[in-house]
């Protein structure tokens, strides 16, 4: 081969490379699978396919939004001791500042919602992780789920009794398996393999929950619905500077629930949903209603198929649809533009949000 021919081949090869003919990325569209090994990258960065991040990503800097909840339910305003109320407010503020620090430094929405929920799982005030409610055998059976709106990938665990932080296990299910939902012992084995901390089931118990359990054991299981104590499921939704949405929810479920009962929290579409095309949602309340009405996904569907605003969709579902069926609860949501909705139809919902220019806001009633 002459030197001239060789130079010609090099020039053609360089042109093809520039056009991206050999690039794997040009072939990728739609949902990416963790086995592709690029999951972390798509969780935090721009994405092609179903839910595209905005083209002009620079314009997003400083446009992050974080919304959290610590459960719906609770007594009417004025009946909770002031000191207790203050404790809730402080912990909600702390949770917001943890997520804010991540989003401010350009961290992803997935990183933020996981960190916030993990913090709330460790706080005994809430019904998730330590401080979770017990089933009818006196054991805390925990549920959690997380969803990445940029890839529509999701992970969840249900009925776990030994994983210290179920939300971390849910995230690992998303990242390391081809499944969405792992239950009980299998989920615990998997969590251990991932290096997550396992604890004795007694770790989750607190004197306040034991007292609540003992009191309710004397009456019927249905009493739970009438119990006016804060239930305390936790959740977070976020929009990051890259325009990616994420949602996470974690709970002990309902006090005195039947052993084996699964609520909406670990069910993608019922208690948790995120999609860059619309919004990110985390629900709290009597899970059976949220499951039957597929509430988290329905917020997104009303926006996508009917063109409703986030506020219209969220308010309709909580104040009309669920309320007319007797379903108590609420949800937090953020849409791709950074709009926030936090409707609830119960006496109270522990909640808060943070935005770059507005700082953080915590509300209960
Ligand atoms: N939704 C949760 C469940 O039904 C409980 C709650 O949010 O309070 O398991």
Task: Name a few traits of the molecule.
single chain, 365 residues, binds aspartic acid, alpha+beta, 4-stranded antiparallel sheet, Glutamine Phosphoribosylpyrophosphate, subunit 1, domain 1, 2 domains
Instruction: Report how far the terminal alpha carbons are from each other.
Output: 81 Å
Radius of gyration: 22 Å
Helix content: 25-40%
Question: Looking at this structure, what is the CATH superfamily of the largest domain?
Answer: (Glycosyl)asparaginase
In total, the number of domains comes to 2
Backbone structural class: alpha+beta
Question: What is the C-level CATH assignment of the largest domain?
Answer: Alpha Beta
Helical element count?
Answer: 11
Which compounds are bound in this model? aspartic acid
Major β-sheet annotation: 8 strands, mixed
